[in-house]
Design brief:
The complex is a heterodimer. Chain A contains five helices and five strands. By secondary structure, chain A is of the alpha+beta class. The radius of gyration of chain B is 26 Å and the shape is elongated. Chain B is of the alpha+beta class. In chain B, a hairpin with a 6-residue loop joins strand 8 and strand 9. In chain B, the strands form four sheets. A four-stranded mixed sheet of chain B has the order 3-2-1-7. The chains are: A alpha+beta, B alpha+beta. Chains A and B meet through helix 4 and helix 5 of A and helix 5 of B.
């Protein structure tokens, strides 16, 4: 259906997704998380609460973390979107991914793509955050498994390593 | 679980119990590696089902390292007998003369053969791969009995009833720690779940209907809510499970709400009989106490 042109309520959007320009027809009402997971099959982005409070669906829109469960796909028109699939460079993991593995910053993994992207946005603007800055920045990303201590440790370990 | 030693000398462990994030599959691979003196990289874990892997008690109740650990030990014992018989045939000696080395090799009377060439030799004669099932051990609660002591430091605002959790010390009686990182992960995760239970999490019912609609209403602790934490590990406890492990999964989780309410009692003398510890409840108890005095 999304391939049909000019259909009512449909719009063509063009965005840079993980460094590659793409163009697709989407419904005006399509959520960004649905567009990523269902239309583009990029299932690394997780949807958990669906109401923008848990942070699991965090992606970067022009470098800033947003909840993709609250954003419409059409909001990404003309923007750069980074999902977890675009964080590593080929087989080379991002320093944050390496640090989460080395320091046990994840357990079940559902919140992890969102944690990594939120932390990436932090380190991209503040490469050496204090523990308190890490906690304030990461407040919107819930984790049920780790108790957060190892997430802080992981982000601290990755800071300045880029 | 089913343990297979393939023709190329690699092990495959098929488990019915999933790794829910605790690191259990890593621990299972470590246990197999330890039994045979091979590297963890030589073990492949396959998430199967209980039809193909045999019955397992499942991923809960801090029982995995204990029950699967025993199943792995039983399967490893059987497989070592098969392996010894194969090596005896290859080295022309009696099975009783074969020694399994710490590096996974097998030797008898001065002759040594590594696992991989032995399995290749066996495969060429239709005697490999080797496979055996490990039955899930009976789930005896004393196998996973372990001990913990918590200490909580709280601050109570008398005018509002607000309780802040400042510091936790958790002390654990531990046996062999198979994987220090996942062990500590279980402690920290369990503690903060208990902090949520004690301080903020609540399902609210109104006229029989749940009105706590989503994670915006049901307050999990965030990264801002975690107290300063000190963990004390007291080794020397000898667990009943293979390699003297003790259970850790739920140890950090169960007692903490009582610890926190005891700390509130110690601070301002009010007994809370209901969770979570809300400012409203504490304030109500404080004013009841003031009017009774």
């Amino acid at each position: 259906m999304s391939e049909r042109q000019g259909q009512r309520g449909m719009r063509r959007i063009t965005l840079t997704l993980n460094g590659t320009s793409i163009s697709r027809e989407v419904q005006d009402s399509r959520l960004l998380v649905e567009f990523l997971r269902e239309d583009l099959k990029l299932t690394g982005t997780k949807e958990s609460c669906g109401v923008g409070v848990c942070g699991a669906c965090t992606v970067l829109l022009d470098g800033k973390p947003i909840s993709s469960c609250l954003a419409l796909a059409v909001h990404a028109d003309g923007c750069a979107v980074t999902t977890i699939e675009g964080v590593a460079e080929g087989d080379r993991l991002h320093p944050l991914q390496e640090a989460f593995l080395a320091h046990g910053g994840l357990q079940c993994g559902i919140c992890t793509p969102g944690q990594i992207l939120a932390a990436k946005a932090l380190l991209d603007t503040n490469p050496r955050p204090t523990r308190s800055e890490i906690q304030h920045w990461m407040m919107g990303n819930l984790c049920r498994c780790t108790g957060y201590y190892k997430i802080i440790e992981s982000i601290a370990a990755a800071s300045g390593a880029e | 679980m089913t343990l297979t030693l393939d023709a190329d000398g690699r092990f495959t462990l098929m488990l019915g119990s999933p790794d829910t994030g605790t690191g259990f599959h890593t621990i299972a691979a470590q246990l197999v590696a330890e039994h045979f003196g091979v590297s963890v990289a030589a073990i492949e874990i396959v998430q199967g089902d209980t039809l193909s892997s045999g019955f397992e008690a499942g991923s809960s109740g801090q029982r995995l390292t204990t029950t699967i650990g025993q199943a792995i030990a039983a399967a490893a014992d059987t497989m070592k007998q098969d392996l010894t018989a194969l090596a005896a045939e290859r080295l022309n000696c009696a099975p009783a003369d074969v020694q399994l080395g710490e590096d996974g090799s097998l030797s008898a009377a001065g002759a040594t053969i590594a696992l991989r060439p032995l399995m290749a030799w066996g495969a060429a004669r239709g005697k490999a791969p080797l496979s055996c099932q490990g039955e899930n051990a009976p789930d005896r609660p004393h196998d996973r009995t372990s001990f913990v002591a918590h200490f909580a430091e709280v601050a109570v605002e008398r005018e509002t009833g607000q309780v802040s959790l400042r510091r936790l010390v958790t002390a654990h009686d531990v046996g062999t720690i198979v994987n220090p990182m996942t062990h500590q992960g279980q402690i920290e995760g369990g503690l903060i779940q208990a902090v949520g239970q004690a301080m903020s999490e609540r399902i609210v019912l109104k006229d029989g209907a749940v009105i706590t609609a989503h994670l915006g209403d049901y307050k999990l602790p965030t990264i801002m809510d975690i107290p300063e934490l000190e963990t004390v590990l007291l080794p020397g406890g000898s667990g009943a499970a293979p390699f003297s492990t003790t259970a850790i999964g739920e140890m950090s989780n169960v007692a903490l709400p009582a610890t926190i309410t005891n700390a509130v009692f110690d601070a301002v003398g009010v007994r809370l009989r209901e969770l979570p510890v809300s400012a409203e409840k504490v304030l109500e108890c404080l004013s009841d106490r003031a009017s009774a005095a």
